[in-house]
Amino acid sequence: MFVIFGKPSIDFMKWRYYSFALAMVCTGLGLLAMIQIGRGAANLGIDFAGGTAVQLRVEQPVAIEAALETFHDVMAVLGIFYLLDKEITLLLVTARLTLAGYSLTDTIVVFSRIRENMRQRRRESVESRINTAINQVLSRTGVTSLTVVLVVIPLTMAGGEVLHDFSLALLLGVLIGTYSSVFVAGPLLTRWTSLGHPLSRS
Question: What is the rounded distance in angstroms from the CA atom of residue 97 to the CA atom of residue 78?
């Protein structure tokens, strides 16, 4: 496999408080955008200028493990679009759903390696095992993100008015998703383990 970072040994846990702060700002911005959209105060496209409200009810509780990070990425992109006064359309919704799947897949790769390290490196601290795991998958994450970015940038710059906002949402989402997989997912997991998350007993 093509390797970008070689054998990095970056201390991601060192920056966890800054990562949490930035994640809270991004998520808060997204929530603000959602409120403004609900009030009709955002730049709504024709898709959302009118229509029917739909409410969903689930019979079983929804698991939130890894989901909080998939939520952060989607809300961050929505918040940035709101700040840029971009039109909220169905294409943006499509891009957000695509990003949710992309981010979740990337996070699963990170968490899978963390789980392996939790089992194989029992003498190390939780922070050390998580740091090692993130460094081990850093090249894979970098190659995957770079591949997508190299495709999306030309679409954003020369794709025309129809594709511009969709491509911009994908570009922002990939960048934010890569950041969150590396800097947010691991530190978030340290909080779960301190609260008795199953990984702490693996």
Answer: 12
State whether residue 57 is helix, strand or coil.
coil
Q: Residue 195 has what DSSP assignment?
A: T
54 phi/psi in degrees, rounded to 5:
-120, 130
Phi, psi of 113 (to 5 degrees): -70, -35
Q: What is the pTM of this model?
A: 0.73
Q: For the CA atoms of 17, 20, 24, 30, what is the dihedral angle to 10 degrees?
A: 150
**Per-residue confidence (pLDDT) for residue 150, from 0 to 100:** 92
With vertex at residue 97, the alpha carbon angle to CA 80 and CA 110, rounded to the nearest 5 degrees, is 90
* Coil/strand/helix, residue 18: helix
Token pair recorded at residue 58: 């689930």
The C-alpha atoms of residue 71 and residue 79 are separated, in whole angstroms, by 12
Please write down the long-range contacts of 149-153, taking CB distance under 8 Å and 24 or more positions apart. 149/174, 149/175
The label of the residue with tokens 């990984």 reads: 199
Residue 75 clears pLDDT 70, i.e. is over it? yes
Structure tokens at 191: 């909080």
Q: What confidence tier does 202 reach under pLDDT thresholds 50, 70, 90?
A: very low
Q: Which domains does the chain have, with CATH numbers?
A: 12-48+64-201 (1.20.1640.10)
- Token pair recorded at residue 84: 């840029």
Distance separating alpha carbons of residues 151 and 83, to the nearest angstrom = 25
Residue 154 CB neighbour total at 10 angstroms: 10
